[in-house]
Amino acid sequence: MKHNAAPTEIESSPATAVERALNILEAASQRREGLTNSEISRRLGIPKSSASYILRTLERRGYLRRDLESNRYRLGLKLLSLGGETQAGLDIAEIALPHMRALVDRLGMTCHLAVVDQNEAVYIEKVEAPGFFKVNTWVGRRMFLHSTSVGKALLAWMPKADREALLHNCDFKRRTPKTITSLSRLLTELEHVHEQGYAIDDEENSLGARCFGAPVFDALGNVVAAMGVSGTLTQMDAAKMPRVAEALKETARRVSRQLVKTGAA
């Protein structure tokens, strides 16, 4: 009897429940249209009964909201209130925002601001470009370092020891046929990025999209964020790329200078 009871005890342990709840929240954050109980169960390998219980709890506490027609769960407003204090502490986002808006007005392309968190780049600010084409990103979205322009910009100016530690755990997941999938190729790319002062994601993370990324530095000269602009291949054709790169680099330099003046970040 004791032998049969052990798996059940492990299955229902508080640590397991917490782990599952966090996995559910992370999964929901990656799907703007939300996820059903069945999808969550299949995707995360959680029994439907357990998933249902956790989902109801998260919904009741406001961390998730359920669409009554589709029964899909999306992130709730409670997470925004929790993240409010963290976001308020990100002085860099507040300082960068007006410069990002000016850059979007100038180029007509979406602009992001990203920082490193663990082994990923996380968007902490976004200014959407006008028009019909919308970039499927949001504040809080986590992105690969090796396949994005902001990720490569962050890596290129990062202290060598920090970069090596991050890349040691990188699995170089292939996002498109153009994704860099080896450490040697990425290191060569990062040397080029450092020389030219900006990074390019040329359909490496998403087909049909081209993105530029430039570093933002604090008063000590440390890279604390990367600013990026995203658009279609038509918006960023060969003739327009130099203009986009220079505008982005200049905007990132302005943010860096303001960070130095204010002592932020």
Shape: globular
Biggest pleated sheet? 6 strands, antiparallel
CATH topology of the largest domain: Beta-Lactamase
Average predicted local confidence, pLDDT? 86
Characterise the protein shown here.
The chain is an alpha+beta fold. The chain has two domains: 2-80, Arc Repressor Mutant, subunit A (Orthogonal Bundle); 90-262, GAF domain (Beta-Lactamase), CATH 3.30.450. 49% of the residues lie in helices and 18% in strands. The strands form two sheets. It has a six-stranded antiparallel β-sheet, sandwiched between helices. The termini are far apart. The model is unreliable at 1-11 (pLDDT under 50).
In short:
By secondary structure, this protein is an alpha+beta fold. The protein folds into two domains: 2-80, Arc Repressor Mutant, subunit A, CATH 1.10.10.10; 90-262, Beta-Lactamase, CATH 3.30.450. The chain has helices at 2-11, 14-29, 37-44, 48-60, 77-89, 91-107, 149-156, 160-168, 183-196, 241-262; strands spanning 64-66, 73-75, 110-117, 120-127, 142-144, 199-202, 209-217, 223-232.
Element layout with pairings:
Layout: H1 2-11, H2 14-29, H3 37-44, H4 48-60, E1 64-66, E2 73-75, H5 77-89, H6 91-107, E3 110-117, E4 120-127, E5 142-144, H7 149-156, H8 160-168, H9 183-196, E6 199-202, E7 209-217, E8 223-232, H10 241-262
List keywords for this structure.
265 residues, alpha+beta, Arc Repressor Mutant, subunit A, Beta-Lactamase, 2 domains, six-stranded antiparallel β-sheet, two-stranded antiparallel sheet, 10 helices, 8 strands, disordered N terminus
